[in-house]
Automatic annotation (TrEMBL):
Domain of life (superkingdom): Bacteria
Family in the record: Belongs to the ABC transporter superfamily.
Protein name: ABC transporter ATP-binding protein
SMART domains per record: AAA
Organism: Planococcus wigleyi
Amino acid sequence: MALYVEQVTKKFGDFTAVDNLSLSIEEGGMHGFLGANGAGKTTTFRMILGLLDPTQGTVRWKGKPITYASSPDIGYLPEERGLYPKMKVEDQLVYLAQLRKMSKTDAKRETAGWLERFEVPHYGQKKVEELSKGNQQKIQLIASLLHKPSLLILDEPFSGLDPVNVEMLKKAILDFQKQGATIVFSSHRMDHVEELCDDMSILDRGKVVVGGSIKEVKRSFGKQKVRLNVDADLSHLSALPGVENFTKTKEGALFQVTDEEVAQVLLAKAMELGTLRHFALEEPSLEEIFIAKVGKHHA
């Protein structure tokens, strides 16, 4: 494994921000962190980066502890704005890349390329404070990957972006992964994690309450949704054992069931009532899993 976090705990006085967290991420993988504010995501990132020392546990990148010497291998986009507002965009990006051992010539060339890709080449000579929040976020992402790190940590990378720019940044992150980078990112948007990541962790009060590959997480959750369109009233089928929820839709009905066996019984009963127009068995979304596992704490 490229990134290895073993039984890491972080305490601030009597408060436990991260509680016995373990995870491992393969080289070239993308891992998503989900959790409400205060769940421990940012604290975990700061321990991975070496900005905070764990109270106990170990963090290793390619078998070694992360130190200042690891800086050229790591890119970090913090959730809060971390740019110098009075400094020009190009000067700032080149300066930050040089801190990570990139030559000035290479940094200027890469900066020009990324500004062009993100459709803001004319902002190179502007001060950061003159940019919109969305464009500042673009510049922060460029700063995190300009020096071509092998480990990229992104804390809420799509914050403040409109849908067009979200798609632009998602493509850039996926392209960066294809070049071999290992990526860890957090988001409040379940759909972003579902779309981009191979593996994920849901944090609640500093603990991982759900973790693993997204496919396995969905499979282990068990619950399924059944979408039916039949020429009949299906509402009375909500009383069948294993049916947990029933919703009328424009096309028919949506049932939440405990497992696939219940879905088969539901299908058979529905077909006895009339002509079947549509049947679909849908896996649970990450949002449904998140609400089921931690939503009650944040209702």
